[in-house]
Amino acid sequence: MAHIPVNHPMRPLYRTLSGLIGLYILVFGIIGLIQTAGDPLFDRGDVWVLGLRTNLAFAILSVVYGAVLLAAAVIGGNVEHMVNLGAGLVFILVGLTMMTLMETDANILNFSMVNSIVSFIFGLLVLTAGLYDKVGSSEDVEAEEAYRRNAAPATTSPAE
Question: Which of 31, 34, 50, 116 could form a disulfide with 95 if both were Cys (CB 3.0 to 4.6 A apart)?
Fold first, then answer.
């Protein structure tokens, strides 16, 4: 992944953004746990929390997933970089899978179209954060810049 920028100047913004997304998911999961307490794990009921439909299983997954994203944002560094890359892809894949299974009995997480859209948006934002929050030493930055300059096609000047 030689083209991922190292020490991007907007890294604090991306770290904050992924931390806020993690916080939202964690709060969503906690409120979802309270709202769905006593329901079956994969209930297909009509419980809405913070604008998203949920069940007990989705609330539990949200608490875990939100805690991981929030912890990665607090830790920072390349731990956050790797977590954000992976989490962004998972968000997108889960959104696509649940959109495909939405009107079937396989909709075990009780997703609605709103859930899928939010999953896509969060996935794109967290994946973008993962692409720009890589941390490295000044030597890593210089090596990346040298690679970028040398990788460009060389212009040939006419022989004199």
Answer: 116
Q: What φ, ψ does residue 41 adopt, rounded to 5°?
A: -55, -45
Euclidean distance between the first and final Cα of the chain, in Å?
40
The pLDDT value given to residue 157:
53
Hey, what are 123's tokens?
A: 């996935």
Which of 96, 126, 145 is CA-nearest to residue 21? 126
pTM over 0.85: no
Q: Are 119 and 91 in contact (CB under 8 A)?
A: yes
Q: Where are the alpha helices (DSSP H) in the chain?
A: 11-36, 56-75, 77-101, 113-132, 138-151
56 in Cβ contact with 33 (< 8 Å): yes
